[in-house]
Amino acid sequence: MAPKEKARGTEALLTLDFNNLTDDALGEGRGIGAGELSSLEGALASAARDFNARRKKGLLPFADLPYDPDLPKACRRLASSARRKYDDVVVLGIGGSALGANAVLAALRPLNHNTLPAARRGWPRLFVADNIDPEGFAAIMDGLDLSRTLFNVISKSGTTAETMSQFMIVHELLGKALGPKAAGDHILITTDPEKGVLRRLVRERGFQSLPIPPGVGGRFSVLTAVGLAPLALAGVNIEELLAGARLAQDDFAAAPLSNKALLFAGLNFHMATRRNRPGLVMMPYADGLARVADWFGQLWNESLGKALHLDGSPAGTGQTAIKAVGVTDQHSQLQLYMEGPQDKTVCFLGVEGFRKRVPIPRAFGDQAELAYLGGGELGGLLNFERLGTAMALAESGRPNLSLLCPRISSAGLGYLMQTLMVATVVSGTLYQVDPLDQPGVELGKRFTYGLMGRQGFGDMAERYRGGLRADGRYIVR
Ligand code: PA5
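Above: the input entities. Below: the structure tokens describing the complete assembly.
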């Protein structure tokens, strides 16, 4: 494998550059040596075989989503009719039910989609209400005309307290404003096709609904109706998004050992486990990709942070994904990455060409400190800052790699996201953990149920109170 990997036929969508992760760039024993790269190939080949075998058995249905011809058609039909009826679409969802749509919306619609009617070109505004802060939720609700709003309630389980409480609030508001019958036209439920309270409500009350395939967990669900429906409703080209994802999946099947997903997984596994780099900073140098870092954070952290190996032995694995945005965070986080603990790898997410050109005028040409900027462009400056930062890190022995898109496009984003999802599952194999579950988030939910008085969880409320120190010794007011 050459350091600057070129996968057959896909240079146009994504390039992985890991020059700055090699011992050549960083110094002996600080990155990955040529011998280690060859040894890694064996583990990666086996992880690729494992992935393909599980996919064949139907255990990785997220990998087949890009090939489904029916869902995008259904979402497109929904979007065409909704465009006339609604000015606003509000997603009520959290975690995997929100982050994918948020990431794609920011990347593929103009960044001022919600604020500038001309940027929307007749598509509805899209809000993703992924928190229950009463002030944040009220701020979204206050700006809506309910008679022109569609609420897309997204919850696979139907038991997520945050989403369901939002739904209960919205349902009541709609009923009061429009009457119970008309209110139904403003609710679209995306949930499990068979199970759960939301599906039951769909059956009993006749709400419009879309299914989430049973084997696809939240953080792998951006290409199900969870992501595709709201994105189509906001005017995103979901067909091209899927086409890019398909290409990424095809590339994985065709050329595993020079594959970007496999290499991304293998290199980060090496840095985390052999070079003691438990942190992975995902640093897009494009505002449009900033939310991809949020989406990736959930994908990587929730999938790989596990207490147990597959055989039940203690694991405590994972690599903490940290979000940073270039250039903004060069002025806040970079000092730490340059000189602080040697515990992170930085992954730059770069765009070679921007969709907008903003030239910098040749003003103040007589001022030497400013003259060099005149005649350039903001996009050029941004990219030189990315390149300069990558080089500065490498020169200081700080490992970094880059995922580069020629520009932000629907197909390119689909390729990138599918690549990162595949890489996450492959990483699960390397760490020997289940990347598809999240048992660690359950205990906190059970305490919340107890504190909120949910039937059957009284013991959790007791346990909570039992865990509190009565003397308040460590509380400072
Ligand atoms: O990745 C996951 O599985 C989680 O982040 C879930 O998506 C999140 O907890 C929301 O769950 P649900 O869709 O069941 O409401």
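Note for the figure: The two ends are 58 Å apart (CA to CA).
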